[in-house]
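Lab notebook page, bench 4
Experiment: in silico fold of construct C2
Operator: M.H.
Input chain length: 407 residues
Purpose: comparison with the prior construct
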Amino acid sequence: MRLALDPSALLDRFYISFWVPAALLTVALVIKLPTIIRLWRDPQLRALGGLLLLCCAVFVFCSPSTIARTNRLTGVPNIAAPWCYSLITAMSGSCLLLIITWRAGPSGRSAATRRALRRVASVYCMVIAALWVLFLLADAPVERVRDLDTYYAATPFMREEILLYLAAHGVAGLITSRLILNWIRTDGLDAWLRWGLRLLGAGEALNLLFNAAKLTAVLARWCGRDLDWLSTNLAPPVASLAAILVAAGFILPHAGQYLRDRWRIRLAHRELGPLYRLMRNASGEGVPFALRATPELRLTRRETFIRDALLPLARHVDPDLGRRAYDAALAVGHPPEWARALAGAVGVLDAVENRAAAVARAGVPAADAAGLLREIGPISRALRHPGTVAGVRARAEAKADSTAGVV
């Protein structure tokens, strides 16, 4: 006994409400909105804001409940069709505009780029105007909320309107996919940008699948066959997934760079912790806590405090001890850069102890204060290993005692 498989029933299990991508896209727009407003002159951010807004509008107004409400409020059966088709067309053109603008870069607005942007904008504006003209010429009295594309697939003027919006959507998807593929192959791309382009490529592939499903269902109607499930059951969840991937692809490079910069700042702030605590204990002061201070401001304040505390301490640093500590660190197998950091940590610890004991260093040349201030990061990292610093210091002091015994 063979069981018949109903594709529409199977796809109904994987149905994704249009309100899910609409909500996610709205969140993405809200996250980016402050940056877009603050840097309004940036063409990339303006294009990104426009695309996210159009994507939100597509999934809000193309929802079956919104389509029915739009038709009821205007009193015109299927008036939501040209409106939704216009939004989809505008979104397709906006995506293509953003890719062109993004690829050109912040300083790459050449004459050729501007011409390409004007051409794309002009073509898609004419397509939107043609969609409304065709709807006015068509006779579509029966309201169809979910299956308008296939129900009116053979109706004069509605047939041309459906093909026109699918063609505009498909051409934009093909061109965008080609641009993304060529861009991914470029050497030297940032990792976040490369992953964002991969998500964009996946989203555009799903957009092409959406287009193919719709077009196949329409062509099947022309041939007298019923493949409406491709348009009503397959295409909507594919469009939802495509929108989520496209939004993530555009957001990921900006969000990734932001998070990476924040992480580096926090790591730098944490890295300076040992040296900051040493200087705070030595001076009896510290950086006042500010609840509303940004991570950048906290890092700057910590760096400034450490340098201000190290500057008068530099005259207590023994250069000879630093050289012996460097040689001792090299002797036990430490790399030169790490040996230099360990020697700096030994010198700073010795200077703090000498100043606390009010030991004068008459006749001892002052250490290189500028070099000491430049090395606050490596010195602070070395202070995280007090056992290693103590071992290097002991070897350096033992070497000094042996030298003094020979003399």
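Observations: Residues 277-406 form one domain. The two ends are 105 Å apart (CA to CA).
Next step: discuss at group meeting.
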